[in-house]
Amino acid sequence: MMNNSRLMFIIGSNILMLVATVGGRGQPGQAKPACNFPAIYNFGDSNSDTGGISAVFLPIPTPYGNNFFKRPSGRDCDGRLIIDFIAEHLGLPYLSAYLNSIGSNYRHGANFATGGSTIRRQNETIFEAGISPFSLDVQTTMHFDQFRWRTHDLFNQANSSMEREKLPMADEFSRALYTFDIGQNDLSAGFRKLSNEQLKTALPDIVNQLAGSVTHLYQQGARTFWIHNTGPIGCLPVATLYIRNPSPGYLDKFGCISSQNEMAMEFNNQLKARVDKLRIELPEASLVYVDIYAAKYGLISNTNKHGFTDPKKICCGRHDGDLNIWCGNKAMVNGSEVFGGSCADPSTYVSWDGVHYSQAANQWVANLILNGSYSDPPMPVTHACYKHL
């Protein structure tokens, strides 16, 4: 049952979206029509992976997906991700993962994101560190390019409309929305391997590599980009779960690791500056920078106000004292098998499994960002194809 505060928030957000869509930011009576995107092409990590890593390696198990899809759906969540809410808002189907060859439909886009992906390639294995081999350059310069070439050939070779109905049309690539949600794993890998000073020194190269991927897609005809910055990684329960007796200042007043969030904010500041520079380098592109950090931190710092429980609590898994069973896993405890299952009401939790947000939290964040309130320039996703409104 949705509580009154969250209901009023969603109603208010929808009103803002209507105002932004109808009135834009231009003169009265001069509002521009919605962009009518024919497709979405997404690049990122587990925050927007709709089945890629699950198709390539071990499938994500139950209870993932059970709260909405009623089964595991390849998402690291109990239900939908922010990219799913973007697709819904634009009237498009949920994105099929590029790496999932079974039952996929690519007529209205494809998802190249995979759990564990980084912007820069890492010298770690996926089994040791949760790092995907499909870094951003692989997603954009290998997977996307091959997808475009092969679907173009298949479309031209098709003998019937039935054969074409799951393939994109060549002239629609330039009118599609290209979304990015990546960078969190670069920081988490850096926290494991580097000093803070070394990681800070590496940030410009990480940001430039993301910009290089945007530039490559632009050269292939992409024109509209919706780029998320990275969230408050120091607030993830997986980062704070094992902390005992922290020194003064190590945690902020909301229980987040201050140094990790400061690094995330530095990454975001550099990313925003680089997006500004890309607007000059790519004159025909519309580039929207989305402040996911502010949206997520706003929720974490005001959970009670918005009807959520303590953001440090984890919905799925068992974490009691020295007992740590991660979501969907099993362990023997005192001779009995114990399963890391779901809490009774995921809709009241910010964190689903300690690393990823719940569907309810994803929807809360989506309601904030879709109307352009957290974007630069401030425009709703429906109008992202315009440089200015």
UniProtKB/TrEMBL annotation:
CDD domains associated with the record: SGNH_plant_lipase_like
Any GO MF annotation of the entry: hydrolase activity, acting on ester bonds
Xref: Pfam families: Lipase_GDSL
Signal peptide (UniProt feature, chain positions): 1-24
Gene3D superfamilies the UniProt entry points to: SGNH hydrolase (3.40.50.1110)
Keywords: Glycoprotein, Hydrolase, Signal
SUPFAM superfamilies in UniProt: SGNH hydrolase
Domain of life: Eukaryota
Similarity field: Belongs to the 'GDSL' lipolytic enzyme family.
Protein known as: Uncharacterized protein
Organism the protein comes from: Lithospermum erythrorhizon (Purple gromwell)
